[in-house]
Structure formats: structure tokens, C-alpha cells
């Protein structure tokens, strides 16, 4: 679902339009303003305006429109009920100059490392414009 939201409602695997562009924009707007409960505003500024939503069970869905959709899981939650490790991961990879090799080797299989590093570079290029 995260990839479909990042792709304007179009599923990148099946090429089916699972959400209309208008519904996608609306959903991303709601995620931006209320997706992380009381932490939404702070996350908005710390992670360069990336829409995100979380569950109290530890799931976090973050979307960089036109670039990537990310799903992270961390069962431990903070006082607001958000998965704190997933939030920390998003805040870390969104910083320019972040050591992505170190971050990704801790969290991902090696075959995904190059793909994620490329997507993060695209994210930094898009947010610096």
C-alpha cells in the first residue's frame, strides 16, 4: 500500500489503479496532519514533510510521493503510541549526510542496500529543490 500511495494510487506491481489520484492526495494530507497522533507536527518538520501513519501495535507507514513507500515495524511504542524505533529510523534516513550503509546493514538484507540507498538519494535530491 505504501508503494501505491507513493505512486499516486497506482500499484507498481500489478499496474492497477487501486486509489484515485484525488483519494491518494486526500489520504496523504490526512496522514501528514494526523497520522502520528500528537507527534504528527514534529515528525512533519523532522522528516522533511513525509506523510506517515502509525498503529499502536508498532506499524509505521511512510510515503515520499513519487519516490518510495516504506513500512517499518517496531513493537515498542512511545508515550504518543507511535513505534519509536520506526520513527527514529525515518528521522535518521531523512537527514542529509546520514550514514546509509551503516543504517541499512543493521536493518536490511544486503541485496536491498543498493536499491534503498538510490531511493534515499532521490529523496534528498527532491527535498533539496
From TrEMBL:
A Pfam match: Glutaminase
Keyword vocabulary terms for this entry: Hydrolase
Keyword Kinase: no
Stretches assigned to coiled coil: none
Keyword DNA repair: no
Substrates-to-products reaction catalysed: L-glutamine + H2O = L-glutamate + NH4(+)
Superkingdom per UniProt: Eukaryota
The EC number(s) this enzyme carries: 3.5.1.2
MF-aspect GO terms: glutaminase activity
GO biological-process terms attached to the record: glutamate biosynthetic process; L-glutamine catabolic process
Alphabetical list of InterPro entries matching this protein: Beta-lactam/transpept-like (IPR012338), Glutaminase (IPR015868)
PANTHER family xref list: GLUTAMINASE (PTHR12544)
Family: Belongs to the glutaminase family.
Record's protein name: glutaminase
